[in-house]
Amino acid sequence: MQPRIEDYALIGDEQTAALVGRDGSVDWLCLPRFDSGACFAALLGDAENGHWRMAPKGAGPCTRRAYRPDTLVLDTEWDTDEGSVRVTDLMPQRDRAPELVRIIEGLSGRVTMRGLLRLRFDYGSVVPWMRRSGGQRVAIAGPDSVWLRSEPPARTWGKDLSTHSEFTVAEGEKVAFVLTWHPSHEPRPALIDPHEALRASVADWQAWAARCRYDGPHRDIVMRSLITLKALTYAPTGGIVAAPTTSLPEEPGGVRNWDYRYCWLRDSTLTLGALLAVGYQEEAEAWRDWLLRAVAGDPADLQIMYGIAGERRLSEYEVPWLTGFGHSYPVRVGNDAATQFQLDVYGEVIDSLSLARRSGLPFRPHMWRVECALMEFLRTAWRQPDEGIWEVRGPRRNFVYSKVMAWVAADRAVRTLESHPNLVGDLEGWRAMRDEVHREVCEYGYDPERNTFTQFYGSSELDAALLLIPRVGFLPPDDPRVVGTIKAVQEELGRGALVRRYSTEGPALDGLPGGEGAFLVCSFWLADALHMTGRTREAHEMFERLVGLANDVGLLSEEYDPVARRQLGNFPQAFSHIGLVGTALALFAGRGGQAG
C-alpha cells in the first residue's frame, strides 16, 4: 500500500535530509546536498528505485515513534510476539562526509530483525557496483561511493542487486549500522562511533533548542517547527530550502508536482521575523547574508528563488523512470519558475533587509547599495504585469499582491531614510512612488461592490495573499476594505480552518489542469488577519485546528486535502512551519510567548 505523505518523519544534518516511513524504510535521501540526485527514491516510485528498510522480520508499520525531546533524532518502536525493539535514526552534523546512522536496540524479549538496502543513484536510475572491503560493503557508480558497516558485524548478503541483513537483538543489546557517502575518487572518510554520534547529536540539538525564547502555549509544536526550519537550512551558506523533496503532488494523480529543494525569496521576511522573534539571531544573520549574496547583480535579473548556495540556473526537466508519488506524474527536477518575473520579491527583499536593520543584525556596508539599486529598478518596473506570488504558468497580469509589495519596498526605503538621515537616497521620489502605487491599487485592485480587493486588476477572483495587506501595513486592520477582504477570502476560499490560495475552478489562471488542496500557510495568515481585526477567539480556534493537522511527529506539508483528510505537496514545508511559528507568536505574546 502506498504510504501517505504524513507517514514520514524527517532526519537531516543541515546539508541534506532523509524521509523515514512508519515501516522503518528510508524512502528519500539525496547525497551529498538537498538538491543532489537521490540514492533512495522509492518515495517517488517503488522499492526498485532505492530505499533502506530496517524492521522486525515480517512486521508492518511501527507500534509508535517519536523524536527525542527537542532533537531531530527519531525513535521508531515495534512490539512483536517475540518482544519489543527500537530503531533510532539520525544524520550527525557532519565535518565532511554525510552519514546515516541506524541503531537497533532490543527493549524486551529477543527480536529477529531484517534489513534491505537497495541503493540506486541518480533518482533510482543507476545500479551501483557492490563489493566487500575489509568487512564492509561499498557501492560505487560514477561519482558516488557509499560504504555500509555494522557494529558489531551483522550477517549480510547480496541478492537481487540489493544488500540483505538478518540478526537478532535481545533486551539491552544494540547493533548499529552506518551508511557513509563520499566522492568515489576520494579515499573513504574516517570511521565514526555511531553511539558517540547519537550522544553528540542529542546534546547539540537540545543545546540549540534551549536558546529558544518562546515559552508559551503549544511550545512543543512551535519548537518542532523551529527544529524543522533548522534542519532545512544548508549550513555552509545559511540558505533555507522550501522543502527537502521534489514532486510530492498538490493533487493526488495530478500534474502539479514541483521541485522545492531551493530557496525562495518570498519566504525571507517571514523567516527572518520568526527566527529573530524567538532568539535565533545567528541563523537570521546567516539567512540575511545568503540573501545579500544571492540577489547581487543587475536588479532586472532578480530571481524569485535560487539554489542553496545562490545558484541561478535551476533548469527544469522530467524524470521519466519514476512513476510519481501515488502515480502523480510527472516527477520534476529543477524549477523553471526561477525565470519568472515576480514584482513581490523586490518588496520582500527590501522588507527583509529593513527588518534586519531594525533588529540590530550586524551591519553590512553594501546592504543599502543593494536596496537603492532595487528601488531604482522598481521605480518604473512596478507598473509591469507579472506572474505573481504563486508562480502561475498562465499569462502575466497586474496582480494586486505584487503591487502591494512594490508599495512595501517604497515604504521601507522611505522609512529607512527617515530614521537614518546619514544614508543617501531619493527620499522624495520614493515617497511619490509609494503614494502612486497606493492610489492605483485602491482604484484598480479593489471591488467596491463586493468590498474586497481582488486577485488582479479587473478580476472578480480572490487571492489568499491579500490577507497580508494589514500585516505589511498597506492599510490598517480596521479599514473596512481590509475587513471586507478577510470576509470574502474566508467565505470564498475558506473551508473551516483551511484556505486555498486562489480558485482553480474558474478561468485558467495558472495554465494547469486540475486543482490543489488548501494551502497551510494561507490558513495561518487567515488566523493572523482575524486576530488583527479583533476576532481573536476565532483565530485561536483556527490555530488549534491547524496544529491538529500536523502528523504524529509534528510535521506539516505544503497543503491539506480536507475531503480525504491527508497532507499534500512537498514535505515538510518550511513556509507552513514559518506560518505556525508566526501565528503562535501573534496569538500568545504576553501569555508566556515572546514577541521579539
Automatic annotation (TrEMBL):
Domain GH15-like: 216-583
Keywords: Hydrolase
Listed name of the protein: Glycoside hydrolase family 15 protein
Pfam families: Glyco_hydro_15, TREH_N
InterPro entries found in the cross-reference section: 6-hairpin_glycosidase_sf (IPR008928), 6hp_glycosidase-like_sf (IPR012341), GH15-like (IPR011613), Trehalase-like_N (IPR045582)
Domain of life: Bacteria
Signal peptide: none
Gene3D superfamilies cross-referenced by the UniProt entry: 1.50.10.10
